[in-house]
Amino acid sequence: MTEKILAGDYRSPRQMLADQEYGGHTSIHDDETAERLGFQAGPIEGPTHFSQFVPLLAELWGTAWFENGCLSSHFQNMCVEGDAVKAFARFDSEQPFSAQIWAEKEDGTPVLTGTASLPDESGQHPETELERRLNKLTPPGSLVILENLSVGQRGAAPEPVIMDFDQNMGALYPFSLKEKLEKITEGSPWYDPATAADSPWGGAIIPLEMISVLAEYSSRLAAWPVKGPAIGLFADLEIRLLNGPLMVGVPYTITREIAALSESRRTESYWVRTLISDATTHEPKASVLLNHATLKASYEGYPGLSD
Domain range for residue 166? Predict the structure, then answer.
């Protein structure tokens, strides 16, 4: 057995969602909203940390990582702008298709934990962090904010999506890929159309952290009957490439399904599985599993909450 640990450098992710809006109100990433709910300040969006793993996993698996890689993560503690974060990956030669990943702040505070993987000879991934967590879920109690959702429920219709280089991604993501690349923690010439002609895929690819943006910016079209106003956050996220990468400027379609419902002392959660397919060939290109954790304290009159 040969085990090695890869580590990146400390990076300080930038806040780009301070002006985010959804459902007609501000989000957890707004400082005032976050402080009202008991947080230090508006947190950095969790997927921002994914970019720090890309160089480590590319070192392990090369271009295969960009085409069929899966990063599966449970977020543990929030980061605010100014925090420095380091990413790690532990690889065991006896398990060549999987790695344990984690990130932590300079003082050792854990930021996230999870798995990275490739499909094995049979085409299957080793069990991922979120598969393990889903398998351990117990049925929630009587839900309030999410009482009109059910497992297996599908979004209203297929959603056409595209990410052009200069395209503002809307109220949920009030910035463009071009603006993101000015602040991204780990850049690559493969992300910018001006420098990506020599990429293995002949053009610019969408960075791993921006796949969640592509998956979510049109999510209002799913028309999930979630009660509100209520504030949510990302608690778990898995991004899986299926014959990727996803390309800048290429049209895709999205379909969504509720994969699970769960509850904790502070949250009600709906887990959404999103499939991203090529709009022309209809070939599946990526899937995203996201745990939307809705804060009970943000919903006015939520029953049974103590002060």
Answer: 3-118+129-298
Measured distance CA(226)–CA(232) in Å, rounded: 11
| Partners of 3 in beta bridges | 92
Residue 200 included in any domain: yes
pLDDT 10s digits, 29-54: 444 554 454 555 456 898 999 999 99
Does a structural domain hold residue 139?
A: yes
> What count of residues does the chain have?
307
pLDDT band at 77 (very low <50, low <70, confident <90, very high): very high
Residue 25 has pLDDT above 70, yes or no: no
Distance (Å, whole) CA 203 – CA 209: 18
- Side chain identity, residue 12: S
Which CATH number belongs to the domain containing residue 21 in this structure? 3.10.129.10
Does the pTM surpass 0.85? The reply is: yes
Instruction: Take residue 50 and report the two structure tokens written for it.
Output: 């994914």
At 204-261, the pLDDT tens digits run 999 999 999 999 989 889 999 999 888 888 899 999 999 999 999 999 999 999 999 9
Residue 304 lies in a domain: no
CA–CA dist 243, 155 (Å, integer):
24
Mean confidence (pLDDT) of the chain: 90
* Total domains present in the chain: 1
Q: Do residues 244 and 66 lie in contact, with contact meaning Cβ atoms separated by under 8 Å?
A: yes
Is position 123 within any domain?
Answer: no
Contact 205, 199 (CB under 8 A): yes
* Alpha helices, DSSP H, located in the chain: 31-36, 54-61, 63-68, 129-136, 177-181, 208-216
- Dist CA 81 CA 103 (whole Å): 16
d(CA 105, CA 114): 16
Q: Which two tokens stand for residue 273?
A: 């599985």
